[in-house]
Amino acid sequence: MPRTSICSRTSDNRSDGADGPGVGMAVFSRNKDGRRSILRTARAQQACGMRDQRAPLHTPFTAASTATDVLDGLDLSGRRAIVTGGHSRLGREVTRALASAGASVTVAARNPDRAAAALDGMLGLAIEPLDLTDPASVEAFARPWLDGRPLHILINNAAVLFNPQLQRDRRGHELAFSTSHLGHFHLTQALIPALTAARGARVVNVTSGAARIGQIRWDDIDFTTGYDPVAAYAQSKRANVLFTVELDRRYAAVGIRALAVHPGVIIGPGPHRPEVLSSLRDQGLVDEQGKTIIDPAAGKKTIEQGAASIVLGAASPLLDGIGGVYLKDCDVAVIDDEERPMTADSIPADANSAMLDPDDARRLWDLTEELVRAR
């Protein structure tokens, strides 16, 4: 018989409808090969360390930890996961890490052939077509998942980064908002039955520290009165966090927990266009020779380090019973409402109260439902 023990405790002030604080206890068994297999999570209704869910947990991991570090010893066999954009850069590392831990991973990709080439050699994967800007594609992707079998992990990772020119989807929506928010909202809603069937699913929305400065343009979501690529990207990332807050509020009672994750600033190896290289140098992200600067404590990470917080949110028992939070550096981020400019030595990326505002989260949910229904 495997040896069973308690691997972590996290208390919070939610009780899933019961009175009093709850404590999440992640139970695992130690297999013959020494790997940990998560068995179940109990919610003990007892006053033993009430805590604010949005306060840091002080996990054993750091900004420099990798996805491999976070999943070391965990056995995800039997778990089904979806990763949108799971074939490119950060998404590819998340896919690799989950599959290596035993999860059955489906990569959702706009171009399945390109995804297959990028993932060549990885085992335990399926690749399915998905265009997040096309409602018909979203529904076609979700349909096979509604067969009664569970979906344990949904990682909404695909995004559009800083389009220099305004682009729109076929419905007329600005492309970053359409891809990062509208498409993932629609996909998540379509998959709710499968997530509910897991009896303990996690939805991870990959966001960015840009959510700190992002503003939802309530009267001009689609930039009809002038386009700014930074504002468009930041709006889409603020939307990711607000979506997380309201999704968790609505579905925690049926076992679906939502977490937003800032992976860090991850710069590719290049080559970069001269104007891009100059901007990266001014921000302290590359050196004079154009080589990427890696400084995890300052938020400048490798792909492997960036993927760590994502897989922590997706699979770590340290976060059992926790949702509606923003993760950074393998922990729940602190709330910092000070205005902090970005400098060559500092990239502000902690949470602030505005990006987690429950009223804005509800308002965005209602607006998004209207936009998705309108097609």
UniProtKB/TrEMBL annotation:
It comes from the Bacteria. Pfam families: adh_short. The keyword Oxidoreductase applies. Residues 1-10 have a biased composition (Polar residues). Residues 1-23 are annotated as: Disordered. GO terms for molecular function: oxidoreductase activity. SUPFAM superfamilies: NAD(P)-binding Rossmann-fold domains. Keywords: Oxidoreductase. The keyword Oxidoreductase applies. PANTHER family: NAD(P)-BINDING ROSSMANN-FOLD SUPERFAMILY PROTEIN, RETINOL DEHYDROGENASE. Belongs to the short-chain dehydrogenases/reductases (SDR) family. This is NAD(P)-dependent dehydrogenase (Short-subunit alcohol dehydrogenase family). It comes from Microlunatus kandeliicorticis. The lineage of its organism: Bacteria, Bacillati, Actinomycetota, Actinomycetes, Propionibacteriales.
